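Minimal example, chain plus DOR.
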Amino acid sequence: MTPDGQRSAEILMQEGQIAALLAPGSAPSGVASILDATGCLVLPGAIDPHVHFREPGFSAKEDWEHGSLAAVAGGVTTVLDMPNTQPPTTTAAALRDKVTLIAGRSRCHYGLYGMLWAQNAEEIEALAEAGAIGLKVFLGETTASLPPPDDGQLLGALRRTAALGLRTAVHAENGAILRAAAVAGDGLAAHGRSRPAVAEAEAVRRVCLLAEATGAPILIVHVSTAWAVDILRRVKAEGRVNVRVETCPHYLLLTEDEAAPMGAIAKVNPPLRSAEDRSALWEAIADGTVDQLGSDHAPHTPSEKECVGDLYRAAAGFAGVQTLVPLLLTEVVAGRLGIGRLVELIAEGPARHWGLWPRKGRIAPGADADLAIVRLCPPAVLPRPFSKNPRSPLSDRPVHAEIVATLVAGQLAYRDGHPVGAPTGQWQRPNA
Ligand code: DOR
Ligand code: ZN
């Protein structure tokens, strides 16, 4: 899959980059090794712009050895890691510590978000200077989040990010509405009522307005409701806000009603929604309102998830980095999604939004040789999951696609169900 569409080609790789795309059968003699991908589809390695690999502080939930192996086993060659760790990534020093902590351990490339919260607006320039891929702000409370800036602080912070050209990923749920709506009931429906659609819609509208006032680039993560889609479609059509939009496979593939029997395993923030919300998200994928897909890979330990009989206290979130690409390829097989559009959503889009384009996100001469070799196939048993806590409400779903091999910087990182070689993932800073 090239930016110009699907074609048959030999991909010549040299020193971690794509050197040339050649007509089939015209590879020069003397190449060091050949990988025969006949019958497969070669995609630019997916960039999962939304993972929580949990280090430092929560390595019982996930760590870089498990998380990055799950990534490459899922055709993901770059992940962007969220800052709600312990300590949280709120300072340049914390970001540098994270870089040191991960070095040499990751099988995929990685970028790191800094966290924006109520008390660190003056750190923004230092976080950018230290190499943050972007900022993340949690407008409503969730796992290990910190209190958000108030509207005045957020406006000031967005002025600073606008000057830097640094994009902010926004968890858009209004915290005050969440607190007022909280109901301690068992069952997913009670969780859904605790985080109503209006909380998302209000936060989306407000942050878009503040982004308009400042010119700051923003990206609304894990959009879950028809209401937010509707607002974002109109904001994007008006063209005055530099806003991009993400949704996740679970909002596209599951409703609250369908997931209800699964209980806490399907608890996530924002919650799973209705069939109408799900259809609105598919329309938003088709008409370009959605710009990227992220897994929101957010594992927890079984005991954190399964506070039996007390879904209210159970942790929110579940694994997803390994299933992102196979699940979406299954939608391609089902005819719901074009393969070209999928590549935009999982590779080109994230690369553009987070300063990795044109070196990543495309198969073309000069780009990094990060590739996913996939086979569209009949229903198959899902391969072994590699996350430390791999359960998800989607993990038993039949998939019609197989990740055959994944290359990171021109080298095999995963093949036929197994990791290959030592970790080679490199830290990624955004383009200047
Ligand atoms: O369900 C969620 N889990 N939503 C979030 O926003 C955070 C995530 C986590 O880090 O556990
Ligand atoms: Zn998240």
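The radius of gyration is 20 Å. The first strand starts at residue 10 and ends at 14.
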